[in-house]
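Hey, I'm writing a tutorial for new members on how sequence and structure tokens pair up, and I'd like a real worked example in the thread rather than a made-up one. If someone can provide the structure for the chain below, I'll link this post from the tutorial.
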Amino acid sequence: MCSRKYRQKFINNILPSDFCISPGSEVFIYTYHPKQHNGLMDVSRYKHYKSNLKTVKLIAPVDNLLGEEFDDQNYHIFIKGMIVDVGSKSKFKIVFDNENLPGLKSIYLPKFSSDIILNIVPSFDFIEIGSKVLARLELDDSYDSESIGFSTIKKDKLIKYKGSDIRWMGVVIKKLKNKRLEVMFSINSYESDIRYEFIANKDKNRPVSNSNITRIVNLDEVVLLRKFPQCL
């Protein structure tokens, strides 16, 4: 069992100055509310079941080993996109793969937005215990190009998003041999209340656990979670 030593032990990773964001860069967009980024994606946990949940008290997770603030309304998700040059001095346009992320429309974000994360695989030497990373966390253990990373209901239709374009926040708790990492995932990336397992599994494609989920991943499967500067 993991101890409390991982709580908020987050590292400010330092990378070479040539890692920067510019048109053509592949990025992940941090989304934690259904109305965020012009309603980019419905990340709510129970939005379509509000009438059934009004009389039910939501239970906080049994274990919260990273000491995070638990969001009992929404999942916190990172969505893959690409920066497109639109000639603006203040904003980036981000477009999404409609095959992997059906229905997602392009958005505009300020160039200095902290919600834009550069998709860059770090050197193993840059990773420390406590480094924040993005990685896949799915209900299906296949983790291939067709597996589903998240889903939601839109106009009574289940919309599925492929895991190749979805990431979740985690913290490195072990560095292993052969450039492998053990990652402990954020409490806002899965369902912690067993009473809503059916909703989480069927409608949101989220696993259920009463403690932080861990996975062993290869280095090339993670993205370093930090704010990168714009290219000059």
